[in-house]
Fold these 3 entries.
Entry 1:
Amino acid sequence: MIRILNNISKIILDYQELKDRLEFDEGFKIQLMLKDLSSNLFFLQEHLTNERERYYNHLKVNIKDNMAVSRAEVLAKADVPEYDKLKQIVRRANSCFEAMRSNQSFIKEDLKHK
């Protein structure tokens, strides 16, 4: 999982370093970045699913012990903090993915008008 997270960070940093005024060759770079980012997100989803299962298993055990649901949720979050962290990382990486797609569309439209 660490390798996947490092790959995602590198892709986003490479995207951030692109010039403000993007040209066609940067559009090609963005296309490659999107490919890499989407495949890394796919594999990260497997880890997120595993953490989700751990979280809900903790929640279920706590509720079976006649614990209040709100208390069970607090304990499950404390026992499986990776679940919330991964959700946030995936959400933010998806936002970057969408921004990259928008930028790529802008480049395509810009090229049509040249």
Entry 2:
Amino acid sequence: MSNISGVSFVHNVQDKYTLAYKVEPWNDRLKVEVGIAFCSPRDNFCRRIGRAVALGRMEHENDVNHKHTLYFSGKKPTRGEEWRMLEQAIKDEIGISSYEMMQ
């Protein structure tokens, strides 16, 4: 995971995707905006390109296929283990495995 201006990235080289996400407090919950970038099975995975595409999709309001806004209960994570749990919850919520099947 890397962090640029409050945006975190998760790269999965094996499954060839990148998630960009930003966590913000929202009332008594967490608002998480997520963008997803997939690499074609024919191409080599590139983290730099994945970050750029996922970030662009996260920031684009009209990308209904690759942008998600999620809400979770609890407080913003402060430790690595808490961040990994949140990242797994994000992947579970958006059904990343179903996205992989569409590729």
Entry 3:
Amino acid sequence: MSAKEFKFKKTKKIIENYEARLNEIKDILAVHSSEMRDYCFELAMLKVWKDWDDKMPVGSVIAFNDEMFLESGDKNVVDLMKLVQAIEEYAGVSETDDNDEPKAPKLKLLPNK
């Protein structure tokens, strides 16, 4: 085997390892972005949407989307949603389907304890 062939095989293996690890990292980020979406919801319900939440009838089902969080008026919720969107873009995941319609989670409001 010539030096060039050896170098090519070694480089190919490094690239394959790199790509595999990058894909693993993107999968991990996708999971974290989903969790962070939940944090956006929790923060909004604890502060800026608290009065609205208290008035909603038990069992109501509401579809939330990114814009609702971005327009919530709470800097922390807005910043967190922007981070979620940036992570999803980097990881190659999205909360939209093929028609670019938001696939917002439908959340059922439970009674306050």
